[in-house]
Amino acid sequence: MHDAVVVALSSPVLVGIYKDGELIEEIRNEGMSSEILSEIFESLLKRYTFSRFIYAKGPGSFMGIKVTYLFLKTLSIVKKIPLLATDAFFFNENCPIKAVGKLYFVKNSSTITLESLQSPECGVFVLPKRIDAENFDTDNLPYYGIDAVG
Fold this sequence. Notes:
The chain is of the alpha/beta class. The protein has helices at residues 33-47, 62-79, and strands spanning 2-7, 13-19, 22-29, 50-56, 83-86, 97-100, 103-108, 111-116. The protein has a domain at 2-88 and 126-135: 2-Layer Sandwich (Nucleotidyltransferase, domain 5), CATH 3.30.420. The strands form 2 sheets. Strands 3-2-1-4-5 form a 5-stranded mixed β-sheet, covered by helices on one side. A 3-stranded antiparallel β-sheet has the order 6-7-8, with no helix packed on it. It is globular, with a radius of gyration of 15 Å.
């Protein structure tokens, strides 16, 4: 059995396949999650049997979060495979994440706040070489952090 981890908060979209907690395959795609997730998973579902789907639930790209959640939640229901999640800071060494303008999401302990930063050092998202299921939660609802701008 394998775990699929998806980080689709910015470009590139990252999908990692893990066996016994070890990363065995990494897919990086510069496309939009709305266009590429179905293609990626069509191929993966032919090659692997999954025990869990895991995703970065935000903060990050509002559309990326929404599309990823809807795609994986639907797949989870149809395939009867649990969907787990964690915040995006897990995948970028707890660095600030761009929100809008000069606003960035920042995580202090377990609290995510929105702060105005002039020139933050933003980390890129990466898939860890090893994962532990205890780092992920069944609370898989997206975390947008800010309301949609109208």
